[in-house]
Amino acid sequence: MSGPAALVVPAVKKHTATVIFAHGLGDTGAGWQALLQPMFGYSQMPLAQNWRRRGKFEEVAFIFPNAPTIPITVTTFNDLQSAHDEVGILRSRDYFNSLVAQEVAKGIPSERIVVGGFSQGGAMSLFTGVTSPLKLGGFFGLSAYLLMHHKIKDFIPASMPNKDTPIFMGHGDADPTVRYAWGQQTAAVLKELGYGVDFRTYPGLPHSADPEEIDDLEKYLLARLPPLGEGEGTKS
Hints:
The chain is of the alpha/beta class. The chain is 35% helix and 16% strand. It has a 7-stranded mixed β-sheet with strand order 1-3-2-4-5-6-7, with helices on both faces.
């Protein structure tokens, strides 16, 4: 896939896990990484570095890909199906899978890789996680929705390697862009397919993130990617 290279924040200690964090509509990998600076009061403290400053995720490499955008021009969850560009979505899914494959080639087990993102990045991450041929450590979507939900069964491997992989979703109930109801319906569809979804609601939150949501995401990532110590892993 053409476009700017992904922004990579390497692990501080021995690299044992990876988080691939995709941006939303009109943003970039670098842009989302810096989005949360005002929330925490650190003018030069992007997301990954904020966690590092507090001694979190020192064995984790963060990848912020510059993925293509998928325009949102509809008003209902069902209309999203007809509005989606299947070829473009599958191309983006393949790009995400290639990032996962690159990490596996470095020696990182797929079960130690989490894919997630905000808005359309979250939508692509949910689609990638559900349809991945590899068992992942987790996948999450913030203010996100499920792409091609009417036919997603066609793209899920028969073995369903991620059926037991916990999914985290966070959504503000005042979101005017990716409607809160879309997030709720996405969680419902995933549960109907047999996946376990932890769906969190953030009252009054528009199409953005806030410290409470990021704290919940942090807890999810810590549970999915606990530190292993210096005995295992690979050099970044």
